[in-house]
Amino acid sequence: MIAFDTPILFFLAPAVGVLVFAFAIWARRVRINKAGNWSNELRAEAASSGRWGPYVLGLAGVLATVALAGPRWGSRVVETESKGLNLVVAVDISRSMLAEDANPSRLERAKRETRRLIHDLRGDRIGLVAFAGQSHILSPLTVDGSALNLLVDALHPDIASAGGSDLARALRQGRELLLAKDEVADRVLVIFTDGEAHDSVAEIMSAAERLRRDRVRLVLVAEGGTEPVRIPVRDVDGTFLGYQRDPSDREVATMRRDDILTGVADAAQGMLVSASVGDQAGAVRDLIAAFKRSPEATTTAAQDISRAWIPLFIAAVLLLLHTITRRTMALAMVTLSLALSETASAQGPRNAADDAWLRGDFAAAVSEYLQQAQLGEGGDTVLFNLGTAAMALGDTGVARTALVTAARSIEPDLRFRALFNLGLLELVLADRDSTNRGDHLEEARRYYREALLIRPNDMDAKWNYELTFEMMPPESGSGAEDEQAQPSPADSESEPAAPQGLSAAQAEQILNSIAEEERQTQERLNRRRSQLGETRGRRDW
User: Fold this and answer.
1) N or C, which terminus of the chain has less Cβ within 10 Å?
2) 403 lies in a domain?
3) In this structure, are 8 and 157 located in the same domain?
4) Residue 346: its pLDDT value, please?
């Protein structure tokens, strides 16, 4: 059965053919009349040539319109083979992830880095798990990155059936999802969380050790800060309503639990990506780059295949035959001019900001790019262009703001270029501002380090990274003051230093102090573990 993308164009095809035929008849008559102005013989010759032209053009018009209607029919089977990794991403959607000690919040940063990871690992088989008080499989292993991104965008604590953070359940469910597919490829579980787990620590460690025994690679990605912060509560429009409160109506404080995250990573012999890493997705990608990938053959049945090329091909053949049988190439020139005009219109209007950049008018380019960014046009590319033009103009404030935003793009190439230019901007500022040179060089070093995570072999980034060390000012405190602070050789000889050894009583006292401190530490850990076990199931953040 034949179907059309735009059925109305199929029904209009005869009318289009008639119009083209009528126009061709009118053009032929005009040509014959103009030839008759010269002589009757020329009129007769003009009338005898090109009689079939209007019919050919009319039929070509019909076929071209049918092609534009988008005819579809039939089916075909496509087999593809790809080498992929089995990877499950688990995202903590408990309410503690709404804390805003990360930009813009722990959860939003985790979602942003997850989208980047999905983009960077195209071809790998990725599953998605969301967990809070319970764990839910949102997607089995798939290569459909678009579908995964839609699920990631919808992640929010409100979709969880129970509050709290059951990290052990997420570890178990991620392992089960990976082991369900019998593959020779390595299995990787990536978890974005703040580590504030409310289940038993012993249960979490047991689940982590099970991952190690089953050879599932664990990568923990930490979110949030180590200082206690409150959890804001907002409505669907983002309006601030207050702070999260416990059942006793006291405001809740949350912080990143590095002790739990480190313990889980050690138990599973996994890896931990710090919250201070700017490009967490890039760090995860580099960590799993050497893991084993397995080939997989995929068979896809495509229905209603587009056949628009068939009528278009017939129309092109008719026009070509008509053109090469004529004495002149007039029709060919008309066709060429139409094709050129179509190409020009497809390219769209020239970008005024790009024109200003090419002219070297950076002020106008900044103004145009800024206007486009405010209108939401061009996405991260316009922000990158705005930052680069502002840097060329010398407006460091606008340049830094635009480039920092562009550096969060999901496109690795755009991220790299934005980070490279941010590092270059800090190098320029370090050269101008001798007072804060060290701070600017530290920032430049950080940007180039993140850029090299994306392109480890880029020589320009490596050169500039080394330059940040060479430009670093020497440490203060050298010179005469240092010489005065050090004793002279004569003083050293006349007053020998006191022996550094400890007596037996002093050593025993220090050892007893260390033992007492260790005992107190263990008691605090045991109290904390018991509190976690008692409060399990009652906290909703």
Assistant:
1) N
2) yes
3) no
4) 44
Same domain flag for 147 and 260? yes
**Residues facing 86 on adjacent strands:** 125, 187
8 Å CB contact between 105 and 99: yes
State the Cα–Cα distance between residues 59 and 324, nearest whole angstrom: 17
For the cut 80, the answer to whether the pLDDT of residue 1 exceeds it is: no
User: Environment class of residue 541 by beta-carbon count within 10 Å: exposed (0-12), middle (13-18) or buried (19+)?
Assistant: buried
**Domain end (from 230, 265, 298):** 298
Q: What percent of the chain has pLDDT over 90?
A: 26
Alpha helix stretches (DSSP H) within 288-411: 309-324, 330-347, 352-359, 362-374, 379-393, 396-406
Q: What H or E segment, with its residue span, contains residue 91?
A: strand 86-92
The token pair that represents 476 in the structure block: 């203060």
The closest of 403, 408, 401, 398 to 424, measured between CA atoms, is 403
Q: Could you report the per-residue pLDDT of 3-56, keeping only the tens digit for each?
A: 888 889 889 999 998 999 999 889 888 888 887 888 787 778 778 877 888 888
Residues 116, 10 share a domain: no
Residue 144 has pLDDT above 60, yes or no: yes
For residue 360, pLDDT beyond 60 = yes
Amino acid in the structure at residue 484:
Q
* Nearest Cα to Cα of residue 134 among 73, 198, 87, 71: 198
- Are 110 and 192 spatial neighbours (Cβ–Cβ below 8 Å)? yes
Q: Report helix, strand or coil for 86.
A: strand
Residues 6 or more apart whose CB falls under 8 angstroms from that of 171 comprise 189, 191, 204, 207, 208, 210, 211, 218, 264, 268
Q: Residue 51 belongs to what domain range?
A: 3-74+307-347
Contact 218, 208 (CB under 8 A): yes
CA pair distance 307, 264, nearest whole angstrom: 56
Are the C-beta atoms of residues 243 and 233 closer than 8 Å to each other? Answer: yes
Provide the residue type at 146 as one letter. S
**Burial of 201 from C-beta contacts in 10 A (0-12 / 13-18 / 19+):** buried
CATH number at residue 115: 3.40.50.410
CA distances from 224 to 109, 160, 282 (A): 9, 20, 18
Q: How many CA atoms lie within 13 A of 451 on its CB side?
A: 29
Q: Of 97, 198, 29, 40, nearest to 538 (Cα)?
A: 198
